[in-house]
Write the structure tokens for this entry.
Amino acid sequence: MMKFIYMMASPPHFYRLAGKWLPWLSGITLLLLAAGLYGGLIYAPTDYQQGESYRIIFIHVPAAWMSLFIYIAMAIAGAIGLIWRIKLAETVAVCSAPIGAGFTLLALITGSMWGKPMWGAWWVWDARLTSELLLLFLYLGVMSLYSAIPDKRVASRAVALLALVGVVNIPIIHYSVEWWNTLHQGPTVTKFDKPSIDVRMLIPLMVMAVAFKVYYVWALFLRVRVELLERERNTQWVKELLKMNKG
């Protein structure tokens, strides 16, 4: 088992494996996005309270979920790199930050677009919005810190520490609608008894959530491959790869 883990953590092995998966992941992403958007914009019924404007949830909610999911993945990868000094884990943590920042920004923008007709304001300083904005700043802090330190191994360890400290914000975002009075509605999908959402809305919402996750893996593989080439540019396997591409 440990041999398999170390093999998967090998930069040249991951580079080759990720290259084989990239076309499949891009195709799966496009298919899921097409199905999810069709389901959300056409198949799902009109909401009896919010009308057609609620349909932005098919972008907003999965993007918000991904903003939390990617941060947790980044923190775990950073911790693995910090403890076991695994280069690939360090690279995954660093490369996750821009993708997570993108999803967080998308969640904030679509949330504002949804909030204007529902609340009468583009922005309110409630617990959910404020903690989500803080998450964006954490992502940007990770990216800035990594860029500011020339030694990338040292930068990766600093990034891991910052990511781990920021994990405290994740439960605050998730439970903010239960801990404080906010304009956000309570949980409708992740309820222990039964989701209080029409199944015709739930299915495309879940499809979009899976599409965003597959996209994350695709974008991560792409960014990690580029980062590995930069970090390992003086190693033998990269030199051999360049020779093969030139040939």
